[in-house]
Amino acid sequence: MIYRRRHLGELCRLVAGLLRTGFKAMEPRGQPSFILYVQTFGDLVTFNPHFHALLADGVFLPSGTFRVLPPLPEAELCEALRHKVFDFLCAERVLDAVLPVACASGVTPDFRFTIASAPRPPTPKVASASPAT
Description:
By secondary structure, the chain is of the alpha+beta class. It has helices spanning 6-26, 74-91, 98-104; strands spanning 31-39, 50-60, 66-68, 126-127. It has 3 helices and 4 strands.
């Protein structure tokens, strides 16, 4: 994968799509706001691409109002990401189709998906944006 960095962009788009889907499930009219970036380090043997995300804790409604939402369900998000990433990498022939089955059974514990989140501070339930004059 180190020589296929173009795949990192597609993987980032997969993460963005899952975040949009998760927020839309909670508020169909809302527009989520987030920043994603890919960080890589290591070499051919220890290559470790991963994503960082800064997410708003809600969505913007068409009226301009920000609506705070409950946290995204991390376990479901993580599992959906696992499937999407494996499907993509197998379709691109980066991974052998046997690897996702092995990972699901715990054979390869170094290929994992985790989501780390910071504690949420108390926030007001509704904030309204007013146009600048």
